[in-house]
Each structure stands twice: as structure tokens, then as C-alpha cells.
Amino acid sequence: MDKSYPDAVAALDGLLFDGMTIMAGGFGLCGIPENLITALRDSGVKDLTFISNNAGVDDFGLGLLLHTHQIKKMVSSYVGENKTFEQQYLDGELELEFNPQGTLAERIRAGGAGIPGFYTKTGVGTIIAEGKEHKEFDGETYILETGLTADLAIVKAWKGDRAGNLVFRKTARNFNPMMATAGKVTVAEVEELVEVGDLEPDGIHSPGIYVQRIIAGAHEKRIEQRTITERESGTEREAG
Amino acid sequence: MPWTRPQMAERAAREMRDGYYVNLGIGIPTLVANYIPADMDVTLQSENGMLGMGPFPHDDEVDADLINAGKQTITELKRTSYFSSADSFAMIRGGHIDLSILGAMEVAGNGDLANWMIPGKMVKGMGGAMDLVAGVKKVVVIMDHNARSGAAKLLKACSLPLTGQGVVDRVITDLGVFDIDDTGLTLVELAPDVTLEEVRERTEAEFSVAEGVAV
After folding, report:
1. Is the dihedral of CA B79, B54, A62, A81 positive or negative?
2. Fewest 10 Å CB contacts: which of B133, B134, B145, B200?
3. What is d(CA B176, CA B188) in angstroms, rounded to the nearest whole number?
4. Residue A222: inside a domain, yes or no?
5. Which of B49, B62, B127 lies closest to A228 in CB terms?
């Protein structure tokens, strides 16, 4: 089964409609599907609800789609790095639903696993708990959170094969594996597209069943905060 | 003299124990990593999906795929493992992390914590803070004793929207260290040359004083 497409535009063909809900992987700018985001911008699809931990920065990541006013609502845990976001939110143009980061991750995991809801103690006694069912287990209070799915999930992996099997790299994994499971259709972009059989079966992080379309693309991989240790002559960092 | 920020971080590092898995928040808590004793085996968790967080990289080692929860470039160690955000918060929510050190805007005498939202101002989001305080075994807050305006931050009740209810176990400020348990707030340590009177003046919450402190 060859799920590969020549590029991001081809991979999104026939999947997009105004008002749809899209999940996008990444933490900050790390592990974001850069090529698919650009293709979404160029498609002009609008009134989008995005489920994504962050909202990118002004001129990169989901910031590109905010700039063109294609996003109507964000479901996120933290949006502090984006001034365009702040302006559109303060102007009342953009809806925002904050989820605690772990609750967001688990809602997506649950959605992809066919679990409509789960109880968590995260957020009990806070505004997050308002209007939600409360239930006691062993004397402790929990709130009901619901599973999340989306019309489309766009994810980014390091390597992938034509059957859609994915391998992530370092902290660029983050929300990508769960989102792959929770999209009605999941499109993956990878740095390196390989032949079926080239990936070690035991080393596959996301099985290809979750991925319907896959592309290879070039990635800028922009860094938000380049923090470094000065190299002192004759010393090496200790690795423990 | 009250503790400086590095001294507060140094004091917070004394909360570490051999074998601990620890999550450090953004800001002053990040500094705590610099004061972990060399002979102590502590593994740092980064909630974006990493156990065994190493220091900032040298210039030629920077890797865009390797960042911490503050989006700063970091390095891996020999012990490092990577995992998804769902696994990361399973670790946190499931009570597998021993210690969380984080900052605060307000802490109440009953352990309530507010550190994510000021109504009327732009809200950036809670990130992983609500999950951390709900799930981690011990929650230590490190913060200035008073706001820049001089207002108390250790309060009878938080005025800001909560991050968690009754979740804080210990508070380290520039003036001293407080414990919070079923009996309420207790001053357990004073910074050098800080008097009990000064702490009382600058604290709104009621607190008791542990034996041997301020004698």
C-alpha cells in the first residue's frame, strides 16, 4: 500500500472545507508540520478550529494562518509567544479554549482510542472544572473530560515509510503520535520518506494504520530560544 | 539579609533527594538545576517529552529537535529517554514524578496556588502547571515574598484564579521557608538576619512558627 503523495498540496487535495477542525502536532515550533501548514494557508480554507498545544509565532507555524485570519478558534494550553494571536483575541475575532497540557494530550489520546471521556484531578477547584461533572473515587475528587477527534490531523515525523509507519526524533515527538490517532484523516510529513521494510519494526513509534497520506518535505526547523553553554578550553560537558 | 534569587534556587536545590525524578518550572525554578549537588543522582523531566534533561548545548551542538518546556535548546544525557506528551503527562498525573518546583503569583495558607492568570490581562495559558500540581508527589513553590508593589503573596485566600486547590507543600521565598499541611502554614526557616517581625509585616496569611526558628 503506497500512501505517499508528491507534495503537501496534493496530500491535502479533497480533504479541506471551511469550518473544519484540524489537529496540528508540535510543541512550540518543535515538530510542527511546516509544509502542510503552508499548504493550508495557500488553500485559503477558513473558519478553522485548530487543536494544537501552541499557536506558533507571528511569522511561523500556525502564526501563518492567524496572519491570514483563517483560524476561528484555538484549543491550546499555552499561546504566549504570539502577538498576532493576542491582538485577534483582544479584538474578539478569535475564540480560545484553554486546556491544561496533560488534559489536552489525554483528550486527544482518548479520542483516538475510542474513549469518549475520562476522569482527571487536573483542574479540580479551578475555572477549568466549571460546568464539568465531578465524581469521587476513593475519597478524591475528579472531573470528567471528553475525548477529542478532528476532521483532519497534520503531523510531522523524522522518518516514515510509504505505508505510513512513523519514527519521531527527540522532543519533536510531543503531540504528534496521539494526533495521528485522532484524525478522521491523518496526513504526515517527514524529513525522509523510505521504502517499506527500511524501518526497524520494533523502532516504529506510530504504526501506519493511523496515517492515510504521507509526504516528504524540507524543514526550516526554526529555533525559538537558542540557549548555549560557552565552551571552555580543554573541558567537555559532563554527560551522566 | 534576605536571600537573593540564586540563593533561593540554592535553597530549593536542598529539596532534592538521591534518586528523585524532578520537574522544574520556567524562570527561577530553572536555576535550581545549577545547584544540584554533584554526588546526587537526580533526573530532570521536561514535560514536552523527555527524562534526563542535560545542560544547554555548545554552539555547534544545537539541535532544533531538542528543546525543553521553555522552548530553550538543551542536550541529552546517557540516561535520556523521549516519549509523547500523553506519556509525559501520564508520568506526571500518575504520581511518578517526585518533586515539582515552580513559581507563583499567590499562595494561600491552605495550599491553594495561583500562577497562570490575571483577569483583564492577556492570558497566555496554564501550559502543564495544572497537571503538575495535581499529580506530582511534592510541590514546592519558589517566589519573591512580596510583589513589586510590596503586596503580600502569601495570603489567607488567593484572589487570582487558581492553578490548583490545596496543592502546595512548601514555599521558599527570599525571607524564609514555609511548610503547608493539614495544620496550615508554618514558618520553618528564616533567611539570615531576617526577623520574625519582618516576616509577619510582609505576610497576609496566618502562620505558626516551628520550634527553634527565630529564637
Report:
1. positive
2. B200
3. 8
4. no
5. B62
Taking only residues 118 to 147 of chain B, the set having a beta carbon closer than 8 angstroms to any beta carbon of chain A reads 122-131, 134-135
Number of domains observed in the structure of chain B: 1
Which residues of chain A have a CB within 8 Å of the CB of B81? none
Residue A235: per-residue pLDDT: 45
pLDDT tens for each residue of A108-132 = 999 999 999 999 999 999 999 999 9
Q: Supply the pLDDT for residue A54.
A: 95
Domains in chain A, number: 1
Question: CB distance from B55 to chain A under 8 Å?
Answer: yes
> Rounded CA gap, A190 and A216, in Å?
5
DSSP code, position B56: P
Nearest CA distance, B124 vs chain A (angstrom): 5
ipTM of this complex prediction, to 2 decimal places: 0.96
**Could you list the residue range(s) of the whole structural domain that residue B27 is in?**
5-209
Question: What's the whole-number mean pLDDT along residues A178-207?
Answer: 98
Contact B49, B23 (CB under 8 A): no
pLDDT at A233 over 70: no
pLDDT of A239 higher than 60: no
A201, three cell numbers: 519494526
- Asked whether residue B10 is domain-assigned, the answer is yes
When pLDDT is averaged across residues B138-159 and rounded to a whole number, the result is 97
| B160 close contact with A: CB closer than 8 A | no
Average pLDDT score, chain B? 96
Using only the alpha carbons of chain B, give its radius of gyration. Answer: 17
Neighbouring residues of B33: CB distance < 8 A, sequence distance ≥ 6? B24, B44, B55
Note whether B131 contacts A122, CB cutoff 8 Å.
yes
For A10, A19, B71, B142, B173, the CA distances from B100, given in Å and listed in that order, are 46, 40, 18, 10, 16
pLDDT band at A89 (very low <50, low <70, confident <90, very high): confident
Residues A104, A25, B137, B163, CA torsion sign: negative
